[in-house]
Every structure is written in structure tokens, then in C-alpha cells.
Amino acid sequence: MVNKKQSVHNIVNQFMQSKIELPLYVLYQQINMDPQEVDAMRVACLATKSDESQRVAMEYLYSHGLLKDLQVLIDRNKKSDNFLNRKWAEVYQLFYNRRTFSKKSAKPGSPNQYLQQVQRMKIDNDEHSLQILHDLMHIYCYFDMHQYRYIGTYNDRIKERLLDLNDPLLYKLLQSRLNETLIIYHWKRNELILSRKYGYRLLEETNNLRKKMDVHNILAQGYLFESYDQAINHVHIAIDIAKELENERALFGLTNYTLPFISSYHCKTDGIETTDKAEQAHLSLAKGDVQTCIAILEAFEELTPFQQYYLGLARQDKHLLRRSYQRFIEERDDYFYAKLPLEALHAFEQ
Fold first, then answer.
1. What secondary structure does DSSP assign to 196-216, as a single string?
2. What pTM was estimated for this model as a whole?
3. Where in the chain are the domains?
């Protein structure tokens, strides 16, 4: 019986020892979905010499969360003789910077800063891959700002521009990134069938643990109103993957936001803790400690729509709940979480 690990090792060696450097997709097509795929592709990405393959390599490393290796390639391509490679390095430096914010922060800072930087870049109309990366950065920044209404146009443009790509691996990687954005886009529009379609498809098609972790986190929240068991199962899968990846920032977000939020909503609070003050208030409310919830939230200078919802529930204040609903719609275009205050209002009116 052929040793699978040895077989992949041999394939990589043959690829790297070829007299003529082959495109990375040739190797990828031979080892795709193999347990050793990511390690093998990482080695090939760092070893490749051709300008085109180094551009594809940056996307592979970014997509798989291999950020230290990505920075190595970014630095290398910033000094490239190829002007296009220098432009790609500039774009990926922005993606890298956005992904490497504080481990104890759930969101990157200053999306407007990234938008301004990417908008200053001069990208020609025939630079289809760069145009896609440009649009993806816009989508990520609008996600960070909760401005979901602007995202549909960029999604449609990316779909069209993907058809102009010739490299099969780059196409697959960027299409996967598009599908990730569609999961969130349709979730926030409360189009859960579409969101789950893209989510489960991505889980089936990828060997990328970071992507699987993110998808399980979104699916968990998407099941909030329908099934505690489904929601909590997806949360625990995401947490297990975060631990396996030793991704401290993801683990912090999952254990301090997603897990306590879903647990509090369903009043399943045994053993649940969080360092986040707002979710501490939510936990207190779920446990019936209304005064502690109110005291925590009244100490805030400003309230988010979520926090207005928590306070509205605690005080049984219909005005706060209506304001929370309006803000979810008007400020965040979030038709999914707008159901939280709406549900509470309907319960109070019965």
C-alpha cells in the first residue's frame, strides 16, 4: 500500500525539480483535498520563482491564513522587477494588515483607512485579478462598517470578472472568497436558504480550516431563532477548529461573543462566561438578574443596536426596542438581527 504522505512528498519534489517551472495549479490539482495539501502548497508557494506563480502564491497563503509566510512573499514582491507584482504586494499588504489587528479585538480598526488606501491605487481595466482584489477589500471594509447595502454591486462585479481569469487555482481561490462574502451578505439580508447554500457548499469544497471555522461561526448565528442545538453545535465546531489552529483572536471572539450571545438568547447559561461587558449584561438578563443588566448598560456612554435591545428587554421599554429595530435596519442594513427587537415587541404586545 502506498504511503499517502510519502506520495504527496514525491509529487511536490517532482514538481519543484521540474526543469521548467510549472504553474502552481498543476501541483494543486494533484493534491487538492489531501490532508497534506496545505503544508505541501505552502512549501511550493515559498519556493516558486515565476512572477505569475508568486502572485497566485500570495492569494493561496492569504486564503489559508498563512500570514507569516504571506509577509515573506509580500516583502519579496515589493522588490520585484515586475511592476504588476509590486502592485499585488501592495494590495496584499493591506489584506495582511487588516487581518493582523489585536488578538483581543473582534474587529479590525479604521476600515475607512483601508478604503482610502485601496482607492488610491491605480488599477487598469484589464488587470482583472487586481480589480477583484480591489472589490473584495471594499466588501470587507463595508462589512466592518456594517454597511451591507453597498456589497451587492461588488459581488456582481466579482462574479463577472472571475470569468476573465485564466489560472484555475486563482479562479478557485477568489471564487471561494466571493462565496464567503455571499454567505454573510445573504445572512444579513435574512435570506437564510441562500446563505446556508453557500455555507454548506464551502464546507464541502474546502480543505481550509480557517474558512471552515468562519463558516461554522456564521451558520451558528444563522440558526439563532430556529434551533439552539444546531446553533450551539456549529459554535463548538468553530471553537474546536480555532483551538486546532491556535488562532487566539478567533477563539477570543467565539468564546466571548458568539457562545455567550447564543447561550443567553436561549437562557442556557450554565458554565458560560465572557469578558465583554455587553454580553455580561445579556448573561445577567438571561439569568433573571435584571438590575445588574440595567446597571451595566446604563454605564455605557453610547449603546449599539444590540445593547439597546438588551436594555429594552430588561426595562420592557418598547421605545428602546423600536429604536433598536430602526437602527439595525437604517444603520446596519441588518435584517437578520433586526428580528431580535421585533420579536420582543411582538411578545410584549400579546
1. HHHHHHHHHH---HHHHHHHH
2. 0.90
3. 1-100, 105-191, 208-275, 285-350
